[in-house]
Amino acid sequence: MGFAYLFSGKSEEAVAAANLAVQSNPSFMVSRALLVASYVQVGRLDAARTAAQRLLEATPSLTVTMMEQMEFTAPERVAQFAAALRQAGLPDR
What we know:
The chain is mostly helical. The chain has a single domain, classed as Serine Threonine Protein Phosphatase 5, Tetratricopeptide repeat. The protein is 70% helix and 0% strand. The chain has helices spanning 2-7, 11-24, 29-41, 45-58, 64-68, 75-87. Helix 3 (29-41) packs antiparallel against helix 4 (45-58). It is globular.
């Protein structure tokens, strides 16, 4: 549900959904990445960077390129998601 909120511009709802998803399954990297992107979209860059650090601590090998290769939505949405991850400081490669 979080991605639906993120891509429909309901950023605060995306943050809430992503936080719930991370609490439910802390080891699922996609939920953590969604939280990062959601924080960027609402303009909470410090929170996004902190969430990005936690994501990288949990999954040190994760890169934006890896997330871009996941075929979970339309290419333009993947680009939007990837841009937010970059803005929060996740490495490209």
